């Protein structure tokens, strides 16, 4: 009887443990989706503003479409990565400050980020002004370069909208106040469609009308979000403009720069892959094929970027609150959920690899080449369901410098040279170049996973508390609640 009773007690204990884990998983998943859901919708809505512009400009003519595409994919793609990276320092600082209940620091952090991103926008303005000669230097056609140069100057106001948009987004995300931001983005997208139709189609203002519509729509997003922030909905985290925003800059700028470098190394990797494909013999079909695949990858990436934002907020909140076990559990739930969606997308691509190219082109050669790349696209989507989540963990924990070094090693020291060797030396063409890219992504993902598994989360929680104190404008008192949380978890 004793043994039988002991066995029953063990079974009951195991059942209660599983129920507890199931309950924790459900609670964590709910918190994650509260951030990831609206973050996904916001990303899609804001991304679609540029997509709508291209759709309207495409009816003006091939030259106009090429000019806008070059500005969006080359100039704005280059600038967007830098601006988003410079604003990403807030993900670490604001998230950990919320966890530590130091809400008064959030507004000051955001104002510091405003100053840094506006200065960055001023420094990047010459890229827009000199777009035409830069494109000619890259051996683009004279007609496309000159028209792109005009359009780039007309959309400079969007550059400064980015400068304000990203800090506000991080401020709101850290406090899980995203639904208002999502609604603003969706309304702005609908307004942009109407305004583009009026200016481009009805009044026939051409590229100038497209630029004006984009400028107004982006500033509508920024001003609406700013009104929301300053209208009294955040009495603890927004107490008005403060001179403290001009203090304690050194560490803040360092984290902003490291965040920008980490993100840009990631984004420019794919740009370089496309350039490498363009250096192949007879590259037209290859570029069309890889562009179709990259566009599909970008849409699936919108989903994983939502998980990126969610895990960044959850990890930074938990570490700031002194709950290292909670941070570790958030990572596990986010990785599993995002990987599940990655598997679904991968299966869909493999099942439709002979059909999805027909949605983008009617050219038989491009359809055949794109279908061949279906396996590579599926593998890339699977890796990209894990990788952005790990990047979100890195941002939430403040590991930007380490990840930047990993990116350099995996992408630029290993991935690109390996792809060039396969593509050019062994004459595997686009498949060889993409294989090198995949190898770099796989190596980076494995290294990041090992780092996450080996992390001492109690140490990270202590470092988060120290970061909150050192990044403040004045010495902060010891956070007793964080200290008690760490003691209880030990």
From TrEMBL:
Q: Where mainly found?
A: membrane
Record's GO cellular component terms? membrane
Q: Where in the cell is it found?
A: Membrane
Q: Which residues cross the membrane?
A: 35-58, 65-89, 109-130, 178-200, 207-231, 251-280, 292-311, 331-352, 373-393, 399-421, 433-453
Q: Name one GO molecular function term.
A: antiporter activity
Which key words tag this protein in UniProt?
A: Membrane, Transmembrane, Transmembrane helix
So which domain of life are we looking at?
Answer: Eukaryota
InterPro entries linked to this entry: MATE_euk, MATE_fam
Instruction: Output one GO BP term.
Output: xenobiotic detoxification by transmembrane export across the plasma membrane
| Similarity annotation | Belongs to the multi antimicrobial extrusion (MATE) (TC 2.A.66.1) family.
Q: What is this protein called?
A: Protein DETOXIFICATION
Taxonomic source organism: Camellia sinensis var. sinensis (China tea)
């Amino acid at each position: 009887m004793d043994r039988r009773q002991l066995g029953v007690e063990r079974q009951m204990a195991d059942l209660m443990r599983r129920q507890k884990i199931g309950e924790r998983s459900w609670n964590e998943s709910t918190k994650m989706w509260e951030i990831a859901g609206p973050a996904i919708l916001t990303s899609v809505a804001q991304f679609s503003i540029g997509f709508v512009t291209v759709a309207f400009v495409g009816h003006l003519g091939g030259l106009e479409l090429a000019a806008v595409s070059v500005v969006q994919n080359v100039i704005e793609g280059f600038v967007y990565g830098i601006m988003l990276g410079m604003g990403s320092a807030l993900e670490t600082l604001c998230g950990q400050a919320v966890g530590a209940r130091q809400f008064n620091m959030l507004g000051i952090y955001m104002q510091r980020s405003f100053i840094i991103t506006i200065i960055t926008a001023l420094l990047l303005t010459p890229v827009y002004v000199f777009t035409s000669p830069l494109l000619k230097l890259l051996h683009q056609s004279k007609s496309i370069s000159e028209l792109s140069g005009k359009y780039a100057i007309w959309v400079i106001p969007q550059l400064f909208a980015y400068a304000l948009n990203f800090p506000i987004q991080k401020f709101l995300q850290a406090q899980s106040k995203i639904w208002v931001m999502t609604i603003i983005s969706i309304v702005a997208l609908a307004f942009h469609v109407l305004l583009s139709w009026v200016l481009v189609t009805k009044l026939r203002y051409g590229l100038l009308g497209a630029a004006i519509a984009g400028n107004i729509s982006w500033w509508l997003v920024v001003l609406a979000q700013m009104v929301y922030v300053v209208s009294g909905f955040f009495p603890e985290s927004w107490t008005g403009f403060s001179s403290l925003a001009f203090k304690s800059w050194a560490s803040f700028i360092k984290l902003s720069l490291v965040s920008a470098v980490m993100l840009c190394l990631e984004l420019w990797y794919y740009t370089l892959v496309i350039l490498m494909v363009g250096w192949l013999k007879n590259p037209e079909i290859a570029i069309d094929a890889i562009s179709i695949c990259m566009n599909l990858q970008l849409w699936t990436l919108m989903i994983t970027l939502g998980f990126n934002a969610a895990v960044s907020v959850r990890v930074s909140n938990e570490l700031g609150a002194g709950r290292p076990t909670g941070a570790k559990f958030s990572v596990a739930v986010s990785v599993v959920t995002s990987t599940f969606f990655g598997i679904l997308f991968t299966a869909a691509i493999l099942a439709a690899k002979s059909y999805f190219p027909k949605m983008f082109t009617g050219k038989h050669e491009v359809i055949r080449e794109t279908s061949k790349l279906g396996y590579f696209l599926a593998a890339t989507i699977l890796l990209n369901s894990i990788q952005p989540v790990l990047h979100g963990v890195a941002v939430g924990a403040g590991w930007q410098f380490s990840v930047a070094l990993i990116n350099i090693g995996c992408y630029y020291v290993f991935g690109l040279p390996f792809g060039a060797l396969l593509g050019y030396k062994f004459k595997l063409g686009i498949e060889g170049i993409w294989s090198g890219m995949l190898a770099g992504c796989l190596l980076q993902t494995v290294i990041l996973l090992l780092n996450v598994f080996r992390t001492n989360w109690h140490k990270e929680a202590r470092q988060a508390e120290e970061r909150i104190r050192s990044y403040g404008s004045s010495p902060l008192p010891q956070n007793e609640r964080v200290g008690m949380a760490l003691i209880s978890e030990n």
